[in-house]
Amino acid sequence: MQGSTLAFLLHLLLRPGKSLGKGWFGVYRALESCLVVRLCLSTGIGSLGFCIGGSLMVRRSVLAMFAVMAIVLGGVVVSTPAGAVVDSAVVVPSPNAGTSTNQLFSVSCVSASSCVAVGYTDTGPAHVTLVMVWDGSVWSIVSSPNAATSKNQLNSVSCVSSSSCVAVGNTNTGSTYETLVMVWDGSVWSIVSSPNVTSFDVLVSVSCVSDA
């Protein structure tokens, strides 16, 4: 037991606040280190310093494992408290403007009865912007302008109220891509001027904090 006793004394000298300052838990941690050190020395794994360092690594590894388990189990408990009602997703019908490709890339909601979704539809000869609104019961397509005769696409939308939204995307004419920005005033969508830097300018996201 000389190795264990020495390890215990070294533990108390090197980490007194950690051992004695926490009552029985501190003593337990010291004894834990002693057992690991004793096992290490008796099996000839390494020196006393090596074994003490290893004991600390073992303790930290065990604590880390319990911490991960606590986070996982805690997350499960918090996410599903007793008596909680878990909502289920429901697929609702949505219209299509064209018979070929209809895609929505972004949606923004300001309430449970006011959402706007944007994308594009393929009419055959061209891609045109596609905008839908949700009134709490059904999705409806609303008229939206197009800046080019070839390809028009809305990639993102952000609404701060039911009468104030901004949608961004791009147009494509041949090998040239240009930015596309539209605003919603509660009645109509209008294209507003937006800058271009190169021959390939695409807007993929927008975020609004006010309607000013």
Report on the architecture of this protein.
The chain is of the alpha+beta class. The chain has helices at about 1-15, 15-20, 25-40, 50-80, and strands spanning about 100-110, 115-120, 125-135, 140, 150-160, 165-175, 175-185, 190. The strands form 2 sheets. The chain has a 4-stranded antiparallel beta sheet, with no helix packed on it. Strands 5-6-7-8 form a 4-stranded antiparallel beta sheet, with no helix packed on it. β2 and β3 form a beta hairpin. The protein is globular, with a radius of gyration of 32 Å. The model is unreliable at about 10-15, about 15-20, about 50 and about 70-80 (pLDDT under 50).
What topology does this entry show?
Layout: H1 2-14, H2 16-19, H3 23-42, H4 48-79, E1 102-111, E2 114-122, E3 127-134, E4 139-142, E5 151-161, E6 164-173, E7 176-184, E8 189-192
Antiparallel strand pairs: 1-2, 2-3, 3-4, 5-6, 6-7, 7-8
